[in-house]
Structure formats: structure tokens, C-alpha cells
Amino acid sequence: MLNVKVSNVLLMLLCIFFLLAVQAAKNGLRRNVVLIIFDDLRPALGGYGDYLAQTPNLDAFIKESHYFTRAYSQQSLCAPSRNSMLTGRRPDTLHLYDFYNYWRDFTGNFSTLPQYFKAHNYYTYGIGKVFHPGISSNNTDDYPYSWSLPVFRPQSEKYMNSPVCPDAGGILRKNLICPVHLQTQPLKTLPDIESTAEAIRFVSAYKRRRPFFLAVGFHKPHINFRFPQQFIDQFRLEDFNNYTTDNNKPEDMPNVAWNPYIDVRSRDDFKHQNISFPYGPISAKHRSQIRQAYYASVAYVDDLFGKFIAHLNKSNTIVLVTSDHGWSLGEHAEWAKYSNFEVALRVPLIVRSPEFPTNASQNIHTIAELIDIFPTLVDLAHLPALPSCNKSSQNLICGEGKSLYPLLQGVGRNEEYVALSQYPRPGIEPTKHPNSDKPKLSNIKVMGYSIRTNVFRYTLWVRFNAHDFSKDWNEIFGEELYDHRLDEGEDVNLAKIPEYNETCTLLRQQLITAFSK
Ligand SMILES: *[C@@H]1O[C@H](CO)[C@@H](O)[C@H](O)[C@H]1NC(C)=O
Ligand SMILES: *[C@@H]1O[C@H](CO)[C@@H](O)[C@H](O)[C@H]1NC(C)=O
Ligand SMILES: *[C@@H]1O[C@H](CO)[C@@H](O)[C@H](O)[C@H]1NC(C)=O
Ligand SMILES: *[C@@H]1O[C@H](CO)[C@@H](O)[C@H](O)[C@H]1NC(C)=O
Ligand SMILES: *[C@@H]1O[C@H](CO)[C@@H](O)[C@H](O)[C@H]1NC(C)=O
Ligand SMILES: *[C@@H]1O[C@H](CO)[C@@H](O)[C@H](O)[C@H]1NC(C)=O
Ligand SMILES: *[C@@H]1O[C@H](CO)[C@@H](O)[C@H](O)[C@H]1NC(C)=O
Ligand SMILES: CC(=O)N[C@H]1CO[C@H](CO)[C@@H](O)[C@@H]1O
């Protein structure tokens, strides 16, 4: 009797050891994941063919990566875009178009990308601006749901909107263009420098058996353009004079589509320029200065990116680099984001995985969306696939995007996917009050829905009801059609031209079907 019992116990112990060994082996094979989100970065990168950019570190990284040339944000505003990307759901599903609600309490207790990794035995950590801080992530960056420990927020972050930019007379201003010497800055540092140091500390000190999921959110190139002086010195102002030829709002652009770049106007160095509201223009000299400062801001975060990336072990770490949306640099005479134009929506999307090694930057032209990142990283890490959401399921763990994993394998690159984006307005004319660049939910009266197909961008501005989130496809305030075969800059709106009537009708049907799912 006793012998039988002893052997049972031994068998049980053996089983436990075996299971532990299997788990350890699995963890050993599991790769670390690093997600890097830049703020307001359009693909102004050498690796994306932009010859004005000075981004040696991202360029070298792209050489070892697959990069998507046509990746799009779901809404060109920080909080809604990040909530959409990180929950894998569209703004219309989340009902989040501004900064002032938290999806778990407002819409549904939806899982997030880091939360999914945490649930699958990853150690998850966030540094800097990953979720938009504040109410939209419940003032906790969605901790503890998404993260194994509280998110690192740089101490110098609180001075981001303070008067910290010395003018010619040494007086500190709240300027748009703000090259600085670190010694003059509060805490003698900048937020992204602090975040980079913390990211390096984390990956260098990491000793756990579990793999990690690390998200690093850089604040730049978002305004103000504050960076160490040396980064602006490397750009010549005159190189930015002929960046676009769009000096005035295009005649055929519906007023509802216009974003009056109120945040740019409100900075101390632009306040007194008497830029006519809402259409400007900004003087030629200032146009070049803003572009130069944007590119300098990109060069600055590229430098920090390079310092961090050098500390990663290439052979066991998946790295995905992206941004929340783009930024207009004078296209259509517009600045900032807040629109449905290609320049405001197109983002870099770069994937380096030991599973897909390359030496010679592989570009993928298939259309991708930021909501695709969640299922893609899940597949790259070989976790159980993320189910796709559908109306019949009340599933809290699902995504609305597609996995880009097959595309990385080389499968399905000719699929004609589309990208869907949207932007809200408080009315049909640009206004300061309410701020038509970023209306609060209660003020939203119009929604611009946009579809990017292989060759067209089609945008329809319709009545939106903020109380029940319904839209009326028959009450139209603006219609835009751009043909990217002829007009990459989206300068000529073809929607009113009779020859394009049929194209508009077809795209309108496709758009309504896509946004009614
Ligand atoms: C929300 O989901 C998380 C896990 O995903 C769970 O821990 C929490 O209890 C849920 N909250 C509510 C209110 O259901
Ligand atoms: C969000 O924060 C509020 C206030 O701290 C808290 O009452 C609420 O439970 C939080 N929501 C979730 C889902 O944790
Ligand atoms: C802006 O307008 C004010 C008042 O009309 C004028 O005093 C000032 O010189 C103008 N500034 C510029 C830069 O034109
Ligand atoms: C990098 O990761 C691989 C695979 O896990 C491991 O064999 C190698 O020792 C690591 N290199 C360093 C420098 O830690
Ligand atoms: C990278 O290039 C070297 C030679 O330049 C080659 O030997 C190696 O196989 C290449 N690796 C990959 C993953 O293409
Ligand atoms: C809906 O999604 C669930 C999983 O989230 C899946 O099991 C089910 O088959 C889906 N239904 C349809 C009609 O696609
Ligand atoms: C466009 O075609 C529709 C029918 O598809 C027609 O009702 C409408 O009048 C046409 N509009 C123009 C401007 O030709
Ligand atoms: C080719 C071209 O358009 N060149 C113009 C660039 O901008 C300067 C003004 O800064 C013009 O003088 C050039 O004609």
C-alpha cells in the first residue's frame, strides 16, 4: 500500500517538474516585444525616401525591417488614435473622439494590447506617452489592467507647456519653435531624454524569466518643437522654402474639412503674427521655420531612438515602431493634424522581428491601419490569435483590425485592403469656440468619414448625433475625392466633376457599408 502511495506522489512530482520545464522552455522561446510610439510623426524619415530628413538611426533600423508605406491612423488626434490602436477598435466602436472619457467606464471593459500580453505571462511596462495621459486613460495610463507596474512618466513632463523657451532677449516664452540648451531647462533635461534613460535602464536590468512587453512613447515631434539647439543647426532654412506650393486653402475644399490650427496660432511666437482666422496664410518665412523645426524635432527623437535601440538584443526582440498620426506642414495651407487628409493620417509603421531577418529594408505597399498592430504583435509573439470582433459577439477580448503577419511572410500583399478614418467637427465652418480642431463630444455635430482605397481617398462629411452616436448619411456637408494616381498631395477635389460621379457613388456605397459594420 505504502509503495503505491509513494510512487503516486513521485509520479505527481514528475508531472509538475515536466510542466514547469515545458513552461520554462516556452518562455525561453518567447520573444520580448518593444512597441515604440512617436507623437505626431508623419513618415518624414530618410528610410521612407524623405531626402530632407536627418534620421540615421531610424534609417539603419528600417534597413533591418519590413516597413509599411501605406499605414493609416483611425483619427488624427492623440487620445482617440491611441485608444483605438491599443484596444484594436475603431473610434466609432469606442465612442471616443476627444480626451474626456475612459472606455472601460464609458463604453465597455475592452482588453488592450499590453493587457493581452500581460494575460499571457508577459511582464508589461510602459514608459512616457503610450496611452494619452489624463481622463482618457483614467489618470492611471490604464494601470493595473494593461501594465505589471505603474507607467514611468518623466518628471520634466510637467513643464511641457510652461514658458521654457528663451527668446532673443533671454525672456522665457511659450513658443512653438523652441531650441534650447539643457542647462537652461527645468531639471536640466527634457521628457524624452528621461524616458530614453529609463528604457535603457529597464532592458539592461531585466532579469526575469518571463519575456517583457515594453511600450515606449516619445513626446516629440509633437509641438512645442523643444529640443537641444544642435538639432536645428543641422538644417538650412532655405531647404524648406519650396516644400509645398499650397499657399492658400484650395477653392474646392469644403470648409468643414479645414482645420484652423488653433494650437499653432496660440503660441507666443505666433500670437502676434496676425494670421487671419480661419484660413491664414502664414508668411513664407514662418512656413519654412515651422518645417525646419519639425524636422529638427524628428532628428532629436531619432537620436534618442538610436541610443535606446542599441541596447536591445536583436535575436530575441520584436520591435514595432509607429506614430499616432501625421502632421500637415503647409499642405493645403494647413498645419497640425485635426483633418482627414493623407498628411494627417499616414504614419510610419516599421517591424523588425528575428523571425523575418533582412539586410535591405523590405517595403510593403499593402494598406495597413493602426488597429492592425494589436493582432499583428500577438501573431509575431506566437500567442493565441486575437479573435476578430463581430456584432454577434459581446467579446471583450477581440480586435477589429487584421493581422499583418501573413504580409510579413509574403502572403496576400496584393489584397485590396482599405483604411478607414474619421474626424469630428462642431459645425460646418471652422470656429475658435467651440474649437473646431478638437471638439468635445457634446459639441460634435458633424463627422467626416474617410476611406483610402488603392488609388482614391474619398471623404464624406455627414450629420452626427453625439447623444446616440448615430449618423445620417443623407445629410451631407462636404464630399471629397482625390485620385492618388494623379494627385498624391490631394490638391484637386474631384467630387464635383461630372466624370467622377460614378466613382463617387461607388465609393460612397463602399464607405457607408464599411462604417455601418
Ligand atoms: C474588466 O476586465 C478586467 C480584466 O480584463 C477585470 O479584471 C475587471 O474586473 C473587469 N471590470 C469590470 C467592471 O467588469
Ligand atoms: C477609474 O477611476 C475612477 C476614479 O478613481 C474609479 O472610481 C474607477 O473605478 C476607475 N475605473 C476603472 C475601470 O478602474
Ligand atoms: C498685428 O496687428 C497689430 C494691430 O493691428 C499691429 O500692431 C502689429 O504690428 C501686427 N503685427 C504684425 C506682425 O503684422
Ligand atoms: C540574445 O538572445 C539570444 C536568444 O535568446 C541569446 O542566445 C543571446 O545570448 C542573447 N545575447 C545577449 C548579448 O544577451
Ligand atoms: C546580410 O548580409 C550578409 C552579407 O552582406 C549575408 O551574409 C547575410 O546572409 C545577410 N542576412 C540576411 C538576413 O539577409
Ligand atoms: C464572432 O466572433 C466569435 C469570436 O469572437 C466567433 O466565435 C464567431 O464565429 C464569430 N461569428 C461570426 C458570424 O463571424
Ligand atoms: C450623378 O449620378 C446620379 C445617379 O447615379 C444622378 O442622380 C446625379 O444627378 C448625377 N450627378 C451629377 C452631378 O451628374
Ligand atoms: C523651383 C522653385 O520653385 N524654386 C523656388 C524656391 O523658393 C524660392 C523662394 O524661397 C523661389 O525664389 C524659387 O523660385
UniProtKB/TrEMBL annotation:
Record domain Sulfatase N-terminal: where: 31-382
PROSITE patterns reported in the protein's UniProt record: SULFATASE_1
What keywords are annotated for this sequence in UniProt? Calcium, Hydrolase, Metal-binding, Signal
Task: State if Lyase is listed as a keyword.
Answer: no
- So which cofactors does this thing need? Ca(2+)
Which superkingdom? Eukaryota
One Pfam family hit: Sulfatase
Which family does the similarity line name? Belongs to the sulfatase family.
| Gene name of the encoded protein | LOC105233690
Entry-linked PANTHER family: IDURONATE 2-SULFATASE (PTHR45953)
What name appears for this protein in its UniProt entry?
Iduronate 2-sulfatase
